[in-house]
């Protein structure tokens, strides 16, 4: 849902934050309700377990009498019992309505008014699990509008009357009776009786218009897709109507527009018809338009923004971003609906990101630059709240422009950065498929994301959705050269307030080297972290998160802070060597305090290896020299975290993850580096002579896996190839 003005809403001051041109995003409709009514609606009066019953269909007939502002209605609810011994059924209908008739399967029954908003229908017999009943509620009265303008009778500037509804979040009870749970969707038949000077618009497909006595018309609508009660809506006034056709592959559907005569200009028609290419773009991105067997449409109403009523969006103007937002809701909010209002970002964050996706992919777009600009324009004005709405005590708390809308959109944008495009859009496809025409919680979405990621993503969702704030980065860099090779040195600190916590994120860097640039990603997961990055040539400039993928409190360049020593090079290199080395050289990116006691080398079969040790501070090189070349074996080289940098005093960052430089960016970590020397010349025992002893070792280990050093070629099995190696070199060196 979108809106464009901010005002004083009864006791709620709804302030707007998200920009739509010069407009804003939260609601401006007057709320005449009291906190007590909100409280009863939200919490105290709705005691029925939603899982006890499943509403399958609503058959709603509503006569609208603008002259008296009166509604006369009848709603037949078809309900399946999901638990044994159901003796009553609660529904919502405000107590200003007179219930003139209540029938259970055609039998009159009694009811109890439990609160301003809640009615308990008393059954005349228990209904068992699996049974289906029909509850008919006939009612009439003058409605009282609540929330964003749940039912409004308004005279336009032209003098024409418009009657329109907007029930979000759960104000359906102000004009029609329903179970009113997001987790219980049902199909809908909706008959609207209005004066013959009006055209009535509602969800689904228009089945026909009947002429009634008293200068009245009955508009008959049928909606065969499940719909949440808050998305049921109507509007009636003297609309002008036109229609277009949307075709997507083999699918075709009407797109209907209902506009005030005084607004009916070519420019306004063209603005709304932008939804046609939007339908194509979003179908490409999100999957086929969810209600393709019926229609999509836009109708004008008095709300200062837009509301994503299923299949038929109400809009108060002609803004492109609002049109994109509300259309995006047809997937995210209508087809997949937030299970609770705590989870509203699953509606509003997704729809806000849909605006940005439209900017990225609409015809003639610049692509990523347009996406980047769109997201920067949707940056929250404050960061000190959570995307997950813990407080649902007011409309303002639920529909936070900063957090449910903008920051919610940034969660998706950053998740796209983390996953990459292919996996991100796969995530959306899986999420849609799993919860299509149903409801989802934040944890449901997290579970699908973790499935795509292949592991836990609490490190992402806990701070970004459930936590508050955003990271502030202070970063500095310099360059160095070690053994003739250039390196980038980067120090990075998260300096946001401590109650914001820490953020684990990949961060983009753009390196300038002469006339060339190179993009790379680093992972940041600590308050202070250091990086040593090999580069093809010396770096002359560094851009931090150059494409603004991360929602940051700030990003501040500072002087480089020297970090811990890391091992940047090892000769011979870690891994497999075919030539037995006589020495090992270890290079650090910075001068270090090191001696022989900090280093050890041990073979799997040969045991501890002795060596002489020398450190060249100018070259930043430690050298281990052996009295004889290393014998074929699997060796483990260990460097103690007691090694420290002379400039920073920080301990070795030594963790080895299969490649150098070492470390995880955090001081303190032993280096454990594997080195395997193969008997590539057949000298299995390493005595300099390929003889019977070597042959016997191979024959004795024949067929085994992991046998050292008889596995001469390093394929982890002693086989014919190893035997041939020994035989081919037999007698050499003897």
| First-last Cα distance | 86 Å
Low-confidence stretches: 2-36, 42-47
Give me the CATH fold name of the domain at 51-238: Immunoglobulin-like
- As laid out across the biggest beta sheet, the strand order is 8-7-11-5-4-14-17-16
**What is the CATH superfamily label of the domain at 51-238?**
tricorn interacting facor f3 domain
CATH class of the domain at 51-238: Mainly Beta
* Secondary structural class: alpha+beta
User: Main beta sheet, described?
Assistant: 8 strands, mixed
Shape: elongated
The rounded Rg comes to 35 Å
Write the layout of secondary structure elements.
Elements: E1 2-3, E2 7-9, E3 12-14, H1 35-44, E4 53-65, E5 70-81, E6 86-92, E7 98-104, E8 107-108, E9 110-113, E10 118-127, E11 132-141, E12 151-155, E13 161-165, E14 186-195, E15 199-202, E16 205-212, E17 216-227, E18 234-237, E19 240-248, E20 251-259, H2 266-272, H3 275-286, E21 296-300, E22 305-307, E23 312-315, H4 320-331, E24 336-338, H5 345-361, H6 368-377, H7 395-398, H8 401-419, H9 421-435, E25 438-440, H10 442-453, H11 458-466, E26 472-482, E27 485-494, E28 505-513, E29 516-524, E30 528-534, E31 541-544, E32 554-557, E33 567-571, E34 575-577, E35 583-588, E36 592-593, E37 599-603, E38 607-608, E39 612-616, E40 621-625, E41 633-639, E42 644-645, E43 671-677, H12 692-700, H13 720-729
Parallel strand pairs: 4-14, 20-21, 21-23, 24-25, 26-32, 34-43
Antiparallel strand pairs: 1-22, 2-3, 4-5, 5-11, 6-10, 7-8, 7-11, 9-10, 12-13, 13-18, 14-17, 15-18, 16-17, 19-20, 22-23, 26-27, 27-30, 28-29, 28-31, 33-35, 35-40, 36-42, 37-38, 37-41, 39-40, 41-43
Helix pairs in contact: 3-4, 4-5, 5-6, 5-8, 8-9, 9-10, 12-13
């Amino acid at each position: 849902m979108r809106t464009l003005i901010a005002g004083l809403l009864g006791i709620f001051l709804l302030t707007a934050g998200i920009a739509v041109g010069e407009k804003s995003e939260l609601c401006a409709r007057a709320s005449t309700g009291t906190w007590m009514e909100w409280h009863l609606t939200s919490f105290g009066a709705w005691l029925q377990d939603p899982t006890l019953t499943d509403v399958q269909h609503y058959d709603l007939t509503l006569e609208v009498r603008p002259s008296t502002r009166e509604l006369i209605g009848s709603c037949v609810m078809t309900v399946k019992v999901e638990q044994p011994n159901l003796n009553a059924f609660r529904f919502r209908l405000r107590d200003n309505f007179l219930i003139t008739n209540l029938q259970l399967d055609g039998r009159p029954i009694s009811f109890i008014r439990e609160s301003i908003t809640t009615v308990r229908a008393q059954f005349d017999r228990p209904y068992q699990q699996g049974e289906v009943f029909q509850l008919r509620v006939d009612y009439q009265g003058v409605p009282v509008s609540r929330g964003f303008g749940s039912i409004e009778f308004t005279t336009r500037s032209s003098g024409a009357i418009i009657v329109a509804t907007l029930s979000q979040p759960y104000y359906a009870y102000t004009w029609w009776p329903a179970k009113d749970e997001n987790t219980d969707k049902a199909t809908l038949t909706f008959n609207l009786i209005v004066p013959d000077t009006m055209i009535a618009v509602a969800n689904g497909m228009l089945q026909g218009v009947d002429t009634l006595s008293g200068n009245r018309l009955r508009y008959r609508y049928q909606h065969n897709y499940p719909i949440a009660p808050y998305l049921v809506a109507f509007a009636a006034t003297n609309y002008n109507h036109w229609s277009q056709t949307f075709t997507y592959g083999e699918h075709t559907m009407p797109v209907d527009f209902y506009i005030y005569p005084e607004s009916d200009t070519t420019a306004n028609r063209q603005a709304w018809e932008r939804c046609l290419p939007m339908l194509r773009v979003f179908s490409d991105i999100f999957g086929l338009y969810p209600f393709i067997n019926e229609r999509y449409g836009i109708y004008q109403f008095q709300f200062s923004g837009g509301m994503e009523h299923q299949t038929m969006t109400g809009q108060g103007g002609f803004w492109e971003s609002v049109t994109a937002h509300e259309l995006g809701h047809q997937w995210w909010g209508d087809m997949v609906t937030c299970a609770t209002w705590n989870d509203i970002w699953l509606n509003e964050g997704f729809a806000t990101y849909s605006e940005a996706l439209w900017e990225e992919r609409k015809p003639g777009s610049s692509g990523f630059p347009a996406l980047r600009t769109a997201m920067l324009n949707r940056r929250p004005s404050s960061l000190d709240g959570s995307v997950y709405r813990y407080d649902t005590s007011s409309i303002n708390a639920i529909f936070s422009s900063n957090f449910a809308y903008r920051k919610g959109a940034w969660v998706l944008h950053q998740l796209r950065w983390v996953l990459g495009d292919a996996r991100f859009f796969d995530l959306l496809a899986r999420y849609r498929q799993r919860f299509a025409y149903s409801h989802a919680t934040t944890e449901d979405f997290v579970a699908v994301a973790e499935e795509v990621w292949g592991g836990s993503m609490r490190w992402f969702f806990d701070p970004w959705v459930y936590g508050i704030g955003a990271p502030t980065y202070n970063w500095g860099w310099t360059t160095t050269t070690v053994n003739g090779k250039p390196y980038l040195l980067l120090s990075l600190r998260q300096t946001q307030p401590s109650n914001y916590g820490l953020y684990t994120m990949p961060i983009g860097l753009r390196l300038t080297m002469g006339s060339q640039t190179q993009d790379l990603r680093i992972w940041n997961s600590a308050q202070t972290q250091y990086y040593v990055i090999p580069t093809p040539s010396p770096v002359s400039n560094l851009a931090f998160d150059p494409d603004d993928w991360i929602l940051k409190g700030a990003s501040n360049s500072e002087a480089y802070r020297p970090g811990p020593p890391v091992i940047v090079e090892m000769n011979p290199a870690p891994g497999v060597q075919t030539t037995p080395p006589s020495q090992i050289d270890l290079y650090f990116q910075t001068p270090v305090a090191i001696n022989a006691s900090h280093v050890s080398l041990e073979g799997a079969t040969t045991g501890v290896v002795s060596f002489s040790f020398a450190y060249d501070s100018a070259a930043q090189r430690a050298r281990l020299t052996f009295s004889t070349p290393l014998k074929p074996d699997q060796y483990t080289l260990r460097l103690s975290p007691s090694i420290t940098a002379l400039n920073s005093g920080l301990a070795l960052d030594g963790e080895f993850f299969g490649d150098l430089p070492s470390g995880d960016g955090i001081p303190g970590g032993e280096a454990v580096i594997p080195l395997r020397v193969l008997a590539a010349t057949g000298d299995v025992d390493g005595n300099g002579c390929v003889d019977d002893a070597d042959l016997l070792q191979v024959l004795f280990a024949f067929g085994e896996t992991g046998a050292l050093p008889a596995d001469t070629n390093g394929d982890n099995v002693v086989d014919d190839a190893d035997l041939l190696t020994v035989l081919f070199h037999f007698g050499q060196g003897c």
